[in-house]
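Retro notes, item 3 of 5
We never archived the inputs for the NAP complex last cycle. Fixing that now. Sequence and ligand:
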Amino acid sequence: MSVDGKIAPADRQGRKFFRFMTPRHRRLLHRIRSGVDAVVVGVETIIADDPSLTVRDAKGPNPIRVVLDSKARTPLDSKLLNGQAPTIVAVTRDAPRRRIMKLRKKAKVLVQKRHGRVDPTELLRELKTLGIQKVLVEGGGEIRWSFFKANLVDDFFVWVAPYVWGGREAPTLVDGTGFINETEAVPLRLVRSRVVDNLLILSFSVKRSHV
Ligand SMILES: NC(=O)c1ccc[n+]([C@@H]2O[C@H](COP(=O)([O-])OP(=O)(O)OC[C@H]3O[C@@H](n4cnc5c(N)ncnc54)[C@H](OP(=O)(O)O)[C@@H]3O)[C@@H](O)[C@H]2O)c1
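Structure as it came back at the time:
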């Protein structure tokens, strides 16, 4: 994110942020990816950035790519469906059957028996039955909020780039509806801080005692 907490400019083209990443940053990110079983993103990130979410700048296996996509809106030509790594699209009853059938040609589709958005707790349960234990939630802000809200976060890594982007409409690190009461705010413990090529890297763990 930028110093003012934005994860993309106001036009939501998050790829513009990646241009500030040096080879060391990319290696680090890809090493983190290669150490998890699955990488999770929201469908708006797929639509805005079309990331491939594979491991290219480090050694190690590709994680399984998981999209939270209630209505099965993942574009069929997105890099996520290019077969370079396994992909799971999690949808709900709101997804049109025809879209599900098209997605099934390119990915595994998990259909939750509910309307509305994908339930992250149920999703993690389903992923566990597939042998997926360690999950990296890469974004965007709506998805991060859902995982925090459901108390599913153990560790939180924040990369702060030395820029101010501003923009009321720009997505932020954690969006969603937000907590209203101070008792609900998620308490964190700073575990490590370091600077890598002008980027501040903060590692937090979530304090469990508040639950
Ligand atoms: N710098 C970074 O770290 C970074 C990383 C990723 C993305 N980004 C940027 O972030 C922006 C996209 O983020 P975003 O916050 O708008 O969207 P997002 O988190 O990528 O996706 C949100 C969408 O996911 C679907 N969804 C399904 N189940 C959900 C659930 N339980 N909770 C929340 N969403 C759920 C919803 O669409 P349906 O209702 O249709 O299912 C929702 O609109 C883009 O601008 C991208 O460039 C930046």
